[in-house]
Amino acid sequence: MRNGAPEPTEEGGAEAPRPRRKGIYVLPNAVTLAALFAGFYAIVMAMNSRFEAAAIGIFCAAVLDGLDGRIARMTNTQSAFGEQMDSLCDMVSFGLAPALIVYEWALKGLGKIGWVAAFVYCAGAALRLARFNTNIGVVDKRFFQGLPSPAAAALVVGLIFVMEDAGYRNAHKLDWLAWTALGVTLFAGLTMVTNLPYYSFKVVGGRRTVPFAVIVAVALGIAAVSMHPPIALFLLFCAYGVSGYVVYGYRKAKGAPVSVIATSTDEPDERGLHQ
Predict the structure, then answer these.
(1) What is the pTM (predicted TM-score) of this model?
(2) Which end of the chain, C or N, has fewer beta carbons within 10 A?
(3) In which domain, by residue range, is 98 found?
(4) Is the separation of the CB atoms in 58 and 157 below 8 Å?
(5) How many independent structural domains does the chain possess?
(6) Which DSSP helix (H) or strand (E) runs through 80?
(7) If we measure between CA atoms, which residue out of 78, 77, 79, 124 comes closest to residue 98?
(8) Among 93, 101, 130, which residue's Cα sits nearest to residue 117?
(9) 119 CB-near residues (< 8 Å, 6+ apart)
(10) 172-220: per-residue pLDDT in tens?
(11) In a domain, 2, yes or no
């Protein structure tokens, strides 16, 4: 190209402009990779029977997962590559890792029922992430459709965190604890693929102003978690896991719309999502 004009080719025509090279932004993808490492670390810790460290790894992955998207938006570095990478890393950290950890911790003592429950959770996470990616343009941004996978993972490993902190070791040998873990695993896995509305907190974390009382509540919440993290975090995610059912029941009773789908796409294969 000379003086801004395309160079002529041998046939006499103008050379087509070269497509712009697609770059990969370092900062948000580095945070996503850190979340993936935290999930991988959790699996390794579970293989070595260090379940408390495994639970902490999943919680760290959840925090990092909440940061990468916000960093990308704040720095204007969103990309299709980052979106796909985030989904793949979420599947490992919040789908595969929690299923393997809870199986190794308690479910392996239940035989086939145990690994089936772990697979149900893993499949639920995969389906939830796939639906999230395909419905991202039609879902009300104030809500998630179904329990988010990081919250589901925190619910499962939160039980492990509490019990390990209380001194319960070899959970797969305690029938009552193994069956409790199975119930929590199935609840989290199946709730991910429901149409229940879960508040996304994107409005609070965005540019809109919030009342001063919200900041005070956040400070009190941080103080409560710091007093005893295992119990506080587990109760927090238990409350969030139940909140979707509460919101659904409240809206149903008031006669308000219960679907989080903002726009109908009239696709035959997605008709069930718009009820």
Answers:
(1) 0.82
(2) C
(3) 26-256
(4) yes
(5) 1
(6) helix 80-90
(7) 124
(8) 101
(9) 99
(10) 888 999 999 999 999 999 999 999 999 987 755 555 566 777 788 888 8
(11) no
